[in-house]
Amino acid sequence: MDGTRVSRTASDLVVRSIHAMATGERADFDLLYAPSAVDRENVLQPPPSRVPGPAGFWATAQWLRTAFADLRYDIHHVIADGDMVAVNSTMNGTHASAIAFYTPDGGVDAVFPPTGRSFAMAQSHWFRVQDDRIVEHWATRDDLGTAKQLAWIPPTPLYLIKMARAKRRVARLG
Q1: Mean pLDDT of all residues in the chain?
Q2: How far, in Å, CA of 158 to CA of 79, rounded?
Q3: Which of 7, 73, 95, 106 is exposed most, by the fewest CB atoms within 10 A?
Q4: What's the whole-model pTM score?
């Protein structure tokens, strides 16, 4: 197979994986991710998303979909070189439900109650592909810009109280 075909196949696979985060079914993740696939961006995510392979990526999708209604990704650029694929994208949605972030040991760090606000988050994703499946993922995101769009910062005193209550609820649920 020539390099162009391999790169195009890898690019298509990666674009499908990004869209699957918003709308894919569980079975899609088994086709997209290798059993040992690693997400290098999951340290703040819920513990179920920290496992390798399709199950971890599926858990990440569920975490995002629960918090953000109308979740979708706009793909702007895709570049492939060998087994690496880079994607410039925007994640869009509405903050419709609480989202919890976790400590490295799995404890609840912060919970942001729903604001009902829409956002557009600039993101760059990097994937390594082997044998027609994703084996590794990294990302950079505009978290600060998104936090401003969602009115997480600067927080109002009332929102800080809501955050504290939400954190207690999530911590109790485990």
Answers
A1: 94
A2: 44
A3: 106
A4: 0.91
Structural domain for 79, as ranges:
3-173
With beta carbons less than 8 A apart as the criterion, state whether 150 and 119 touch.
yes
Q: Which string of DSSP letters, residue by residue, matches 141-166?
A: E-HHHHHHHTT-SSPPHHHHHHHHHH
Total tally of structural domains belonging to the chain? 1
**Segment 69-86, tens digit of pLDDT:** 999 999 999 999 999 999
* CATH number of residue 18's parent domain: 3.10.450.50
Nearest one of 138, 109, 106, 110 to 124, comparing CA atoms: 138
The answer to whether 90 and 122 have CB atoms below 8 angstroms apart is yes
| Contact present, 98 and 114 (Cβ < 8 Å) | yes
Q: H-helix or E-strand containing 54?
A: helix 54-67
Residue type, 158: L
2 has a pLDDT exceeding 70: no
d(CA 134, CA 85): 10
